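Many introductory courses stop at the sequence. We go one step further.
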Amino acid sequence: MDAIGKLESQHSEVVRLFREYRLPGEVRDREGIFGKLSEAIATYTEYEGRIFYPAAKARRTAKMLPRFIDEQRRLDRHLAELKKLHPGVGPFDQKLNDLERDIEAHAREQSEELYPQVRAQLGRLGLDKLGEQMERMTREPS
């Protein structure tokens, strides 16, 4: 799977886990689902920060890339704040809603603005190589 496909797949997993979190259930179930969700988001932002964004730097993406990097860092901060709270208690659910909204906006903007530019810049082979790097990163112990 190429890098953009990998990012889109990871985003789909994040969306699925947000939906699963909202299903009726006990708080302990939500804690487990949030654990999976936080891992999926961390993987998504790590793919972006360590592999995708560095490879995407070029003249045609130079002006837009800093915005996406800032958004990615904001997602990481949201996630760190949520990890200090408990699912279903206090402001957790509102902060989770904010994170979900920000992830959706981030992914939509990437799909519309950044991905087409990076596809043209790196081509299929370049994106395939990045996808392989993401796969290796996934298999490496943290």
